[in-house]
Design brief:
heterodimer, A: alpha+beta, 4-stranded antiparallel beta sheet, 3-stranded antiparallel beta sheet, 3 helices, 29% helix, B: mainly alpha, 60% helix
Amino acid sequence: MSQEELLVTLASGAAVLALIFIAWALGFRDAARLDGEDDVRRALAAYEPGAVIEACFIDARGRGALAQLSDGRYGAVRAMADGFAVRTFRAGAARVKTRRGRLVAAFADVGFPRLEVRFEGAAPAWLAPLMEERS
Amino acid sequence: MIPAELQATLEKLDVVTLAVPAFVALVILEMIVVRVTKKGRYNALDSGTSLVMGLGNTIAGVFFGGLVVAGHFFVYQYRLFDIPWAWWSMVLCFFGEDLCYYWFHRIAHERRWFWASHVVHHTSQHYNLTTALRQTWTGAISFSWIFYLPLTLVGFPPLMIFLFSGVSLVYQFWIHTETIGRLGPLEWVMNTPSHHRVHHATNPRYLDANYAGVLIIWDRLFGTFVAERADDPPRYGIISNLGTFNPIRVAFHEWAGIFRDVRSARSVGEVIGYVFGPPGWSPDGSRKTSASIKAEWRAREAAHVAAE
């Protein structure tokens, strides 16, 4: 990298930081929340029209959810800034375990990292096969 | 012929770098317009990711851009004609570059090898000027530039082709916005914000459409043009939106997917399908492709009409 290229890169980096700060200062900081099963249903329907939820388990902060679908599959919903990212999967396609009041689901998809769902009390019974059949 | 001094200036002209201050100013202006008018959407995290991807693209260019230059100059040795720097050749090169861009872009959506690189540009769920800067880091090393080699082989000087590639990239910046509606007769010929919103949308109706760079005429000519509809507002992103803002994951997630699939392949045919098939291809057809999504959508629409 030449000195000129280094200078241009550093200037571009400074511009990037400035633009992120301006966006933040202008209030573009909305964070999506899952407040109930309807929100989970809407997010899943946008990803897979016709998906029917049998049961769902929502993060205590509303930042993620796991759902049991009527066709035997499961759905994972993650709040991404002011939107959502969703995946559907079969038992065995995700590694799911509980750890210190959190349910942690890990996927093979590099574009969908580990999902943590905080919960109070006990995890619902329908999650048991998901954890037992982990691969 | 054009004057030698002008040719020398054009050969060295880096239009993209020159345009960067304007990019920054326009992004700030658009943020203010969105804040005031509520037309369009911004999110600091999403824009931050887009901007970091753009910066990474510039850095990747420094390291791997030589491959593109070397490839073009290698092919240029075997050119069919000696095309000079002249007004007529520059006009031809502009149209030629735009046509090559159309085919590069179309194949980048239809074949997973090239999609793995281009997908980065589509991973934002927002559509604003920062989305324009969300660019791949792997374009040069995945040979996305080979689509322009026919121009070099014909005899257009590589530096002329690079000049118009830069012009195309700069032109495409301003069309990444929701703040501009339709532009009257310009919509017939030019790629516009409206046409490009369709291209970035995941609504089944809009999938695999409007691949144009500067001129929309190529989509009209090759049957891939779809007009934006008020009753079907675009939803932006990719079919399986990313669950991460980590730039490394954004840059390499599809390449990792290819690697994972190839490792599990049971035949050469499956390897070829996973690498060069349409994005979403799988041996048993269990995954979603553009074609399957469109077919399901058409079936739902037909059932809906029948029910009425």
